[in-house]
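To assess whether the prediction recovers the assembly geometry, we first specified each molecular entity separately, as shown.
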Amino acid sequence: MLQTISLLVENKPGALMRITGVLSSRGWNIDSLTVARTIDPAQSRMTIVVDIDPELRRQVIKQMNKLINVLQATDLTESLAVCREMALVRVRATAETRTGILKDAEMYGARVVDATGDGFGLECTGPAEKVEEFIDAIRNFGDIDVTRSGIVAVSMESRKLRLAPPIPAAAAGNGAEELPSC
Amino acid sequence: MSNLMSGAKILIECLLRENVECMFGYPGGVTLPFYDVLFEGKVKHYLVRHEENACFAAEGYARSTGKVGVCCATSGPGATNLVTGLVDALMDSIPVVALTGQVTTKLIGSDAFQEADTFGITRACTKHNFLVKSPGDIPQAIHEAFYIAASGRPGPVLVDIPKDVFIGSAHYSPVSTIHLPGYKFSQEGHTGQIRRAAQMMWEANRPIVYAGGGIVAAGASDLLRELVEAIDAPTVCTLMGLGGLPSGHPNFISMPGMHGSYAANMAMTHADLIIGLGVRFDDRVTGRLDAFAPHARVIHVDIDPVEIGKNRVADLPIVGDVKRVLERMNRVVAELSPFQKERNAAARKAWKDQIAAWRAEHPLIPAVSDAEIKPQHLVREIDRVSGGEAIVCSDVGQHQMWGAQFLRFNRPRLWINSGGLGAMGFGLPSAIGAQVANPGRRVFALVGDGGFQMSIPELSTIASNRLPVKIVVMNNGYLGMVRQWQELFYNNRLSAVCLDSFPDAVKLAGAYGFPGRTVEDPKEIGQAIDEAVDYPGPYLLNVKVTPFECVYPMVPAGGAINEMVLGPPKPVAV
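The predicted structure of the complete assembly is given in tokenized form:
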């Protein structure tokens, strides 16, 4: 079953590797993954869709939250959230197919982002199923190239972001118990 | 206040601020600038003979003290050799900081000499890791590394430092704060849950306390004892938790699980309440999960929320540091005591009687023979001189299980072994770390002839530092545990398990300049152990034991823990 995870992470080298490592080390396949900076450039927002046993969903979220670079991991699979995907489609168009393509594009709310004598570049945004349907529809007109963004999601519930406060350095490290002489 | 210092000097300053007194390591090309500063002797460095053993020694240091162990290796092969030790520390939640050199920043990614992607390789082997890109970043990384290693659920942290970062200079001023906003762990535990847990403990008719390595890590053994006595519950300690409750305590049953006692496993199976404290319901403890403790409700206290419900659903989860939780739990238990204590006294007495009956039915009794030295006999002899007070660093295999069954530990941090990973070769180097950290305490390395030969180069480290480790080789001429499985489950086809040509122990130890002895007569074993212990320095005692002894009881892999094989199959009468 596909699980949608939203992550707020520190924008640091290696953060992505740690997150994908949690999934790949357990043999879970990533369906899609998007990353971009948030308003705060020190943080990134990721949306990951991963194919996972439903009973392991909580475990995944906990594993993600355990990572030091992860500020917040949220399961959006069944919560109130908006999920959208974008596809960019290049389709060859002939004089006969041009009108049909444009009609279908309009039906799906897709925009023409490039037009040449050879064909069109189309941009379609929406829920993943709608984007898939759009791609299927355009395929009927001939060979196409598609790049999909993967799902980006935003939770519609407000979630309190719990962060660890700063602590004094070298206070929590060594020397908690009595020192051995060595 | 700041002054210009090399990265290597800054690193030493940071280690001193973390109260690091010693480290275990092996130098190399890219760590030369760091070793040049180490030469000044501000931090004592123990030169091991293989990097893997540096990490094991750091673990021995950490496991026996609770402090962070530090190891150091060069780039490439040095760093990759640390990997087994890092995973070992990760599996057993041991605080270790590993420092590795890396090739010069500009060469990273160019397949330079002795380059390996240490940061990438150790991602899965550590709790967290760092690649430091400039000398000015060293203090932050080091203090964060020590904080992460020691706090929450402890674990190994690696800091990878390129050669030019050691050499380059930065203005050093001590870091005053650490800010890791994503590193959250709850320590206190939920008050309501703690109260409900205490209530459940009183209401249970057949409670059992299941205490693990978390008790040791948190320093909660006194509180465990207080709880166990307050509710008068029978208690099992896992392989990692042995010593959490003194072995001689009347409520202590033994270790549960694959090679646990009959009584411990039967008690787990028939309990109506399992009080899991710093445990992870490991497969070696639970056996077949769907048959594990079918009648029990579960209270599970652990600092790592990932462990809650990972293997066994917890009816009452408490996420928190087991020490802090027990401090409050014991108070609530005491508050409720006057109202609860007599309620189910009859059921409680029946439960205790039942456990006593199980113990009497199949007690753990060491086999002894006049003809040959039984391995259990050897363990008993070590126990005799230890009296529950020596540190015993075990390797992995049969001797480890017999040690867990027959050694007594009066306190935590005495039984040191590779629990989760089961890394052979761990015993000898961890004994080095433990002896360095505890110069006044007797340290045994209880090793098999297999694991001993994996870390045999460390005899040199022991000799050069005159560490009075008593190395006891339980020598059965086989990789005993693998042989046992081949005997029991693979038609006794002994494939690649025979270890013939073990070196002459007297000559071997003699070559390193300390005494050694081989014994095979059961009448000599007691005196031989005494001689080893009385010698004021390292001693190698090679004990030839019965080769074909198996560890019992045994729960076959995938079996339920109440379906134990209690002993060798009886010969069938013809």
